[in-house]
Specification:
Number of domains: 1
Number of strands: 23
Largest sheet: 9 strands, mixed
Order of helices and strands: EEHHEEEEEEEEEEEEHEHEEEEEEEEH
Distance between the termini: 35 Å
Helix content: under 10%
Length: about 375
């Protein structure tokens, strides 16, 4: 599904929206935008909003570049320079709640009118459903999930992918939390953010998580177009009814900057052209080329619904005898856009850099214990 047009004459979303500079003061050069959850966006009210029907009918938020867009060879692009920054992942010890369902299971079939890509001209890759599906409950897969949100201007309900990035922070794409635009009157946060880790065809083995705070970059907010240098966001999850933090239950991915321009990664998400976004999918691929503007491209047949899903270095459980000295499972990007044509298979993402480090530091500091 392509992105819907929004009217700029309808009311702005309820809640406190503030431009925040690195020093905490509002100004036109702020590197990011942030919003605290309005008083009517409690965990209970968000969970109540997402009825089984709304969860089942949410549409993918799919972004595509202009028709003239063409990937560039990776060999022709300069590799970003700078000091690489890495944060370590953590394991969670939560037990899955078997039988916990948010809606009845659905028959698995491709969404009507969308064909999985078969063209390998944009890089070789391996694509697979996570199988057996019980694997989705295991670490590190349980650090990834589906992310739902509501557009208060159009009234639409949408779905993206996401992952746990710290004890309370959820990583997704900027376009999954905020309507970016060159027109200031048409910029606003979405609402009713809901994260379901290890979502599995209606099953929510680790519960549903509401939100308390969201932050994305000004590059996304002031543009709304892709390729975008910084189309990523972080959402602070509310603790569950047992006062547990998300990361204590599912664990979370680490993060690593400057790591997608020349790498081999695992891309995860819930694309709606594969299993109708009901089952987690996995792509393993290496850098194919550059989309320009700090974005890089990997081969994949995933499409809408995969937005916000993590691109992970060294995904999996580290085997005994592994000679590396650190843990792996590092998120290096979040899916941002796909191709103009439905017959070409690739995904593009904004590379994590100092801007990502900045918004992560700010989100970590929003509440004690976030990171």
């Amino acid at each position: 599904m392509t992105r819907q047009l929004r009217s700029s004459i309808l009311p702005v979303a309820t809640g406190l929206v503030a431009l925040i500079a690195a020093a905490g003061m509002a100004n036109a050069q702020s590197p990011f935008v942030a919003q605290a959850a309005p008083s009517n966006q409690t965990a209970a009210s968000v969970a109540a909003y997402w009825t089984p029907e709304r969860l089942m009918n949410a549409k993918p938020m799919e972004l595509r570049p202009s028709a003239s867009f063409a990937p560039k060879s990776a060999d022709a692009m300069a590799v970003p320079t700078g000091q690489q920054v890495t944060t370590d992942p953590a394991h969670g010890d939560g037990e899955p709640m078997h039988g916990n369902r948010v809606h009845p299971p659905r028959e698995l079939a491709d969404e009507e009118g969308v064909t999985p890509a078969a063209n390998m001209s944009n890089g070789l890759f391996t694509e697979s459903r996570i199988s057996p599906t019980a694997t989705i409950n295991a670490s590190p897969f349980r650090r990834i999930g589906k992310f739902f949100f509501h557009d208060p201007r159009t009234g639409g309900d949408f779905v993206c992918s996401a992952s746990a990035q710290s004890y309370r922070l959820i990583l997704t794409a900027g376009h999954c939390v905020y309507h970016g635009s060159t027109n200031s009157a048409d910029r606003y946060f979405y609402s009713n953010f809901l994260y379901i880790p290890s979502y599995n065809n209606g099953s929510a083995p680790y519960g549903q998580w509401g939100w308390a705070y969201a932050i994305t970059t000004s590059d996304w907010a002031n543009s709304g177009a892709v390729p975008n240098a910084h189309d990523f966001a972080l959402v602070e999850a509310t603790d569950n009814a047992s006062a547990q933090r998300l990361g204590n239950v599912t664990g979370y991915l680490g993060s690593r900057t400057l790591s997608i321009s020349s790498n081999h990664l695992t891309l995860l998400g819930y694309p709606c052209n594969l299993d109708s976004c009901n089952i987690m999918q996995r792509t393993d691929a290496q850098t194919f080329g550059s989309g320009g503007n700090n974005t890089w491209i990997y081969g994949s047949s995933m499409r809408g619904g995969a937005s916000g899903g993590p691109w992970v270095q060294d995904f999996g459980v580290k085997p005994a005898g592994d000679p590396t000295t650190s843990g792996g499972n590092w998120a290096t990007a979040a899916t941002s856009y796909g191709p103009v044509s439905t017959t070409v298979g690739y995904l593009g993402a904004s590379q994590f850099d100092s801007t990502f480090t900045s918004i992560r530091t700010t989100a970590c500091g929003h509440k004690v214990g976030n990171c």
